Structure formats: C-alpha cells, structure tokens
Structure prediction request, 230 residues.
Amino acid sequence: WKDDFIPFCRRENVPLDFYSWHIYYHEFTRMTSRVDKVHELLRKYGYTETESILDEWNYVVNWTDAFQYSMNVVKSLKGAAFCAATFNTCQNMPVDMLMYYDARPSTGFNGLFRTMDYAPLPSYYAFYSWSKLASLGTQVKAVSNESDITVTAASKDGRTAIFVARYNDDNNEVAKKYVNVKIDGLTDDVSLTGHFTDSSYNYTEVPLDIEDGMIRLNMEPNSFVLIEVI
Prediction:
C-alpha cells in the first residue's frame, strides 16, 4: 500500500507529518531493509521532514508452524535480547519512533509482564536499561565490530552509560564469549557499575573487569548489560 499511498499524497499535495508502519521479524536484515525502504520512499516524493514511525514490532519467525515458538520467545530472555538489539540497531537508523507490541499482560505478544501477577519478564529489563541510558540525553559515538553485538552510548555531566547487547537467533549457539569495551579516556580512578541481564541475572550489578584499559564482559549468546561510568 505504501507504494500507492505516498505517491498519491504527493500528487494531491497532502501534507504528511508522519508515516506509520509495522513489521514482525527475527532476522535483523529484514527490519533494517524495511527501515531504509520507507525512508527512501518518503525522500523520493519530497517528504524529507516526515517522521517514520515503526508502530508495531516484535519477534516472529512466521505466522504458521513457528508461531507458538515465537510467542514463547517473546516472553523469554532471547526475546529480551531481541528487544535490546532492536533499540541499539534502530537508534542509528532513519526511523524516529518505535512502539513495541505490546505491554498488555493478557496478550501473547506481551514480553514485559507475567500474566498472573504482573511480575517483570526479561524484556522489562531491556526497557529499563534503555530508559537509564536515554535519561542522559546526549548520544555519543559507539561502534561494534562483532556481528552479534550491538551498542549505544550516552553521556551527560561527566556520566557515561553504555548499553551492550548480544543477540543470537541460533539456538545451537550456547557458549559465552568475551566482549572487550574500550572507552576513550578510561582511567583507573573512575567508578564503574555493570548491570547484567542473562540466564543468571535480572538487571543485577556484577563486578566489571578492566584489562589494558578495556572493560571485559563475559556475555551469553542472548544477554545485555548497562555499563555506567562516573
């Protein structure tokens, strides 16, 4: 529909403040390709200021034989790492807003709260970690050279936070691996905290190792950590 709708708006000189769309996926190349295509289509027809809003997204392999599996993932640690990786990936892409579907405890797509007692599920801690990062307000450069590692960093008034996520859709990948985080200007007198979410922890503070000026994280295939530097 977008290939008809957006050209129609241009022909009729209709102002377009935002364009909302949704996608369910498990492979990030499918999501990032759609982000780029929407952005390119809006620009092609002159809507350079129009917000691109991804207003529904979540983990889905398919809507048939793997649908029940997908709903189980949504409520799992893997689903939480998927959320964390989505945040990090979309932060540096031409998409303006993300609306996770959804947070109603009674629905299969809810990965935030347990249905019976509203206790937090793993994805809750991805959102909580991101909110701590976003509260600093100013993004600073952070890059990853690992295909399954995504990262975003922010800083304000001498405080820096780094959100590192390891997402892997291959259930046969079970080994931990060391992830080295290099921070420019890191000295021995800084205060460091790391809050891990993995199979053992839910946003739990864990001591961080520093070797040769780098923070060394031992991360499971689907996990994430918020590092705070003071």
Notes: The longest strand covers residues 51-59.
